[in-house]
Amino acid sequence: MSLIAAFAINACGQLGQEESESTTMSEQPGQIKVISSGGFMAAFNILGPMFEQATGIEIVVVHGSSMGGGPDSMPMRLARGEAADVLIFNDAAFETIRDSGHLRTDTRIDLGESVIGMSVRSGAPKPDISTMDGFIETVRAAESIGYSASVSGTYLSTEVFPALGLWEELEPKTTRVVGERVASPVARGELEIGFQAVSEILSIEGADLVGTIPEEIQQISTFMTVIPEHVQNEPGARRLIDFLASPAAAGIIESTGLRPVPQSRLLSEHRESDRQLHVITSGGFTAAWDVLGPIYGRATGVEITTEYGSSMGGGPQSIPVRLDRGETFDVVILNRPPLDGFANAGRVRPDTRIDLGRSLIGMAVRAGAPQPDISTREALISTLLAAESIGFSASVSGTRLSTEVFPSLGIWDEIEPKTLRIVGERVAAVVARGEVEIGFQQVSAILPVEGADFVGTIPDDLQEVAFFSAGIMEQATNLEEAERLLEFLSSAAAAPVIESTGLNPVIAAWSP
């Protein structure tokens, strides 16, 4: 599953509360109220719950369009005195809101840039809008056209369409969409095509992004954040803004269709942290950890050092070998069977073990290579026999394939000479270099590897679900922080990231 699909399906709406228009800001010291325009909401619906979970600070979020005179627009909310701690909106509205005296302008931080795209209903034909001729032909041929009541729609209806000499022809079949994303009525079939910022299209189920409008008429919009004049939780607001603007958040912002804006300053004072965690993770959870670890560290101020190693095997970087030679960590993340073995051996605190994600075994081929059928037992046998070389991991999935699955197919003697047990790196990396034709490993270890394509999973009757789990080492030097980290990793806030990497998240109530 792609990042944006997992984020949009699982993270949207996870923030603890959504305040109604008439509600006033709570006096709770651990609460931050955010008013955000739609263009950044896809990113905030992911990052907000993560910040909440990691810090314990409750976020109340409401939606307000950057411009317009509707009652829920940001200018109107601020004009009637609605309180907030953080505002996120299109910078095209900055001067208007600034001139009304509602902003602390010295706290402005740019978060991401967006371009205008076009959506159609899922499964509908996708016309070519990459050139001016294609764009003009598309809008003329469309039976109905939608555009937003905010910045991008204002630009299209007042500048682009009139400049092209099309407005009189197009206006009767256009709809200015107020109060929802343009892709929503497109998804319902109420509009044939719709235009809005790409970041507002990607998260709508039932609508497909066709592409961006031609560069000649494109408008790059910047989504910015700023603290309003009547902020009630300024320390929390500064902390949240620094988190949103951090490199740790950039990947998620990018996955929602925005281009992150690099930052060179912080709003809150930065201090060297004396809170540290040392974590080691195996390959199957690495893609998820490489997103979640930095996010947790940035939100909490905990300095995290990460090491990597396979769950099993005798390689020098495998987790068992590293522990045998005396290396110590606070948290270990790996397959459940070896984790249980460490607990039985007194290396991991038994009551801290928790499952984070389930993984299936999949197959990879080099990018662009034919993708053989492995959906049935018979098809898998044919693929294995036809392959010139076969790779499998030195960890749990590879051990099971070589000792149970392949022998059960009755072809082990025939294929064993052309198999390679991969030690110290992901199987898909070897496939990507062309050193083996096909490779097997957990799906989560295949998806992040560039140069390799994921073909599919092996048949269900041969499959064994592998759990990636975490535990706290007996020699952990920071038990309290380690417990908080495991609570974060096993929470609903972390689930969309885990799912996007090919794992099925296991959401659990942490109780050490």
CATH architecture of the largest domain: 3-Layer(aba) Sandwich
Q: What structural class is derived from the secondary structure elements?
A: alpha/beta
CATH topology of the largest domain: D-Maltodextrin-Binding Protein, domain 2
What characteristic shape results from the CA principal axes?
flat
- Report the radius of gyration as a whole number of Å: 26 Å
CATH class of the largest domain: Alpha Beta
The strand line-up of the biggest sheet is 2-1-3-10-4-11
Uncertain residue ranges: 7-29
Fraction of residues in helices?
25-40%
Distance from first to last alpha carbon: 32 Å
Strand residue content: 15-25%
Integer tally of domains: 4
Count of DSSP-assigned helices:
21
**Main sheet characteristics:** 6 strands, mixed
What is the tally of beta strands? 22
Query: pLDDT average, as an integer?
Result: 90
